[in-house]
From TrEMBL:
Species the sequence originates in: Klenkia marina
GO molecular function terms listed in the Swiss-Prot or TrEMBL record: ATP binding; biotin carboxylase activity
Enzyme class: ligase
Protein EC: 6.3.4.14
Coiled-coil blocks: none
Protein name: biotin carboxylase
Keyword Nucleotide-binding: yes
Biotin carboxylation domain mapped to chain residues: 8-343
Pfam families named in the record: Biotin_carb_N
Top-rank taxon, per record: Bacteria
Gene3D superfamilies assigned: 3.40.50.20, ATP-grasp fold, B domain (3.30.470.20)
Keywords for this protein: ATP-binding, Biotin, Ligase, Nucleotide-binding
SUPFAM superfamilies reported in the protein's UniProt record: PreATP-grasp domain (SSF52440)
């Protein structure tokens, strides 16, 4: 497939699964870029696989032998004939060994270089600090800087939002170390957690679940930004003023290791990057939710003139969900969203 959007990359291996991989596949194909999904033996018919142009089996169900296996991911990229590897979760995007192996294979790595990941420690986790920021790092510095606050449950951020008063109050005050990301060679997307002392707590590459806040706030597509960073074809940043934004995560509450089957529709609202509301479900009716992987079912994000409006728009999608066949935390997430809307 030819590169029809001036992206500079015509085909990618999407290394990931679940709602995040579904969102990346959807966005990548909208750009005219061929997508190849990867999957384990237990997810041959997973939604991200069905959405992609092609797919490659990595290995058995355990993540260490499939989705997180560096040799198998690199071999899948070679066999599929793609130009680039686009790692989705921070666990892969922050893996210096994988980044090096991809480049050594003659392919493009969409993310910070291996040496940079090694130097910064490569957290490889979804930042869950109560506050942080999102950005795109270029040779000239930070773009689309977006402050973010997070509501956490058991160490996992379930709702993230731009703080009250932003963007009217101007850009966030960043730790000094944040400005050094460009100096040390970090390129592409970054999600940062900030500790109570104002220092960097976590630095993650890839498509963190918070990134939808940046997308809604600035009306941009994070996948396009990542691919353009990797190919050296970044466009000038838009001049439109950013908006407030919120993203919520819907998770299954099955006991750890327990399987289930999704029987009802999950939130899924396909829309352009500059839309007010976007939802991505990782499963369709009939899909099996086994106990091997993350319990994330869907993400819903929204923009608005203020955080309260964005929170209410997000809650509207999650309120009165049909019976999905598996228990989930939708009620608890909506409670957080309504508290956020009330200030």
């Amino acid at each position: 497939m030819a590169d029809t959007g001036g992206i500079g990359i015509s085909s990618v291996l999407v290394a990931g699964r679940g709602p995040a991989a579904c969102a990346v596949v959807r966005a990548t194909e909208a750009l005219g870029v061929k997508t190849v999904a990867v999957h384990s033996a237990s997810e041959r018919g997973a939604r991200h696989v069905r959405m992609a142009d092609d797919s490659v089996l990595l290995g058995p169900a355990p993540a260490a032998e499939s989705y997180l296996s560096v040799p198998r991911l690199v071999e899948a990229a070679r066999r599929s004939g793609v130009e680039a590897v686009l790692p989705v979760p921070p666990a892969l995007a922050g893996n210096a060994e994988l980044a090096a192996a991809v480049v050594e294979s003659g392919l493009t790595w969409v993310g910070p270089a291996a040496g940079v990941l090694e130097r910064l420690g490569g957290d490889g986790v979804e930042p869950a600090s109560a506050q942080g920021f999102l950005a795109v790092v270029t040779s000239e510095g930070l773009r689309h800087v977006t402050p973010v606050r997070r509501d956490r449950d058991a160490g996992t951020a379930r709702v993230s939002w731009t703080p009250a008063g932003w963007p009217a109050g101007g850009g966030p005050e960043l730790p000094r170390a944040a400005h050094r990301l460009a100096e040390v060679g970090w390129r592409g997307l970054v999600t940062v957690g900030i500790d109570p002392d104002g220092e960097l707590a976590e630095v993650a590459a890839g498509f963190s679940l918070d990134l939808a806040v940046l997308e809604r706030a600035h009306g941009v597509d994070a996948v396009e930004l990542a691919l353009r960073c990797a190919s050296g074809r970044l466009r000038p940043p838009p001049t439109a003023a950013p908006r407030a934004a919120v993203v919520a995560q819907l998770r299954a509450t099955l006991p750890p290791g327990t399987a289930g089957r999704v029987t009802g529709r999950l939130p899924d609202v396909a829309a352009p990057a500059d839309a007010d509301v976007v939802a991505v479900g990782g499963y369709a009716p009939g899909d099996r939710l086994d106990g091997w992987y993350d319990a994330l079912l869907a993400t819903v994000s929204a923009a608005g003139p203020d955080t309260a409006t964005a929170a209410l728009r997000t809650a509207e999608v999650l309120t009165d969900l049909p019976d999905t066949g598996v228990p989930h935390d939708g009620v608890a997430v909506c409670e957080v969203l309504h508290r956020l809307a009330e200030g």
